[in-house]
Amino acid sequence: RPLRGPPWAHIIVSCLRIATSNPSAALGRRALGIHLTFRSLRRPLPPAPPTTTTMPLTRFIFPGGGRLCRLLLLAATSLALTLPSTEGFAGRQSGVRIRADEPSDGRRSRSRLHMNLPGQVSKKVIVTGAAGRTGSLVFSLLDEDPRFDVVGLVRSEASAKKLIARTKCALEEVVISDVTQMQFDNVDGRDSHPWPYALDGAEAMVICTSAVPQISKLSVLKAVLKIPLNIMTPKKKAINFRDLQFKYKPGQYPEMVDYIGQKKQVDFAKKLGVKHVILVSSMGVLDPNNFLNQIGKDKNGDGHGDILIWKRKAEKYLCLSGLQYTIIHPGGLLDSEPSKSELVLDVDDALMEREKKAISRGDVANLCIAALTESGGRSVSFDCIGSPVDQEGDGPAKVKSAEETFQEFLSTGRTADYTLGPKGM
User: Fold this and answer.
1) Coil, helix or strand for 182?
2) Helix orientation angle between 361-374 and 133-144, rounded to the nearest 10 degrees
3) Which of 33-37, 182-186, 384-388 has the lowest mean pLDDT?
4) Catalytic annotation on 24?
5) 161-196: b or e for each residue (b if 16 or more CB lie within 10 Å)?
6) Average pLDDT of every residue of the chain
7) Among 140, 159, 282, 375, the one annotated catalytic
8) How far apart are CA 157 and CA 177, in angstroms?
9) What are the DSSP E strand ranges found in 267-379?
10) Is the Cβ–Cβ distance between 126 and 151 less than 8 Å?
11) What is the CB neighbour count within 10 angstroms for residue 390?
């Protein structure tokens, strides 16, 4: 229906029509919409100019409309051509990352929209062991944080599927590689770039790999059969968990994963140009008789064990690599909710003297993020546990964030002493 009123009113209405129309239309469709909109104006089009001189579009449509009409038309055209699409698309536009798998029901899933401030560039971080219970938490936090671009390194295709299902990350954010089999040397010039291109440009690496023991089913059966006898014996627990035996899968021994594998990761970080390596290790490394060192050994002390000893050797290798490092020694890891306990940081197994020396995996993940953002180029190695918080009043207990705790510890200038420990560690 033709519009009534002066030309400048027609322009304003046209601007509103264009701005509220579907911005996901193609460029040609937008141009057609502009054309059809302005056809509704009652002013007839002037005859073609007698000369071949180029005439501005605004002057051609509104020969007497004045400067205001021309400016409004140019503004409307610019607005129509620059409005972003409302449909999901892969890639980056103006610092915004939107992925094609955005839910269509209006819900924004985790890590589907990353927005940076003008001039801000995301920091690329590689997380190894990203499918593990601690590694997946670190990966999820980085994937949700607009300050970071994360790539997860996993050992197998099954681990990759598990990570994608758990975190809903994009396929290109996961790389499959067994750290114990890493071979990045150029063999006879056959491949000058043997690693996936997705790992290029990383500035930091978070190492969460660790040998994982499997419980012996036979030892569980024996422990269950002993329960009636143990119950009848005073001051004896129904199940003595020290009687349970563990073993490692072939090729996944502590020496292979926690020492050789982590050494290869440090070497690879140097090849990639990574500047900062964060290593999640374990507390209790100064005690060679720690129970964890007995896992994987038989009664005679033979077998593949000594996980804390191999971890300590890998830490020393990282310290001598020339890279900036943050080495985190958590106590017993719990699958509990993070940020519910007060984080306590110390060095050289001083926290082993405490009765409670456990920490949430989520708190360890938060400390990894704090190390990425608050280190300030300084290297440090520390132990960490969670301490219960005293409830004051009816409100929730106040707990310092991982960033605040990490900053306070850095200000003390303390770090682990790697001259301590038995010989050979």
Assistant:
1) coil
2) 50
3) 33-37
4) no
5) ebbbeebebbeebbbebbbbebeeeeeeeeeeeebe
6) 77
7) 282
8) 9
9) 276-280, 324-330, 332-334, 342-346, 358-360
10) yes
11) 7
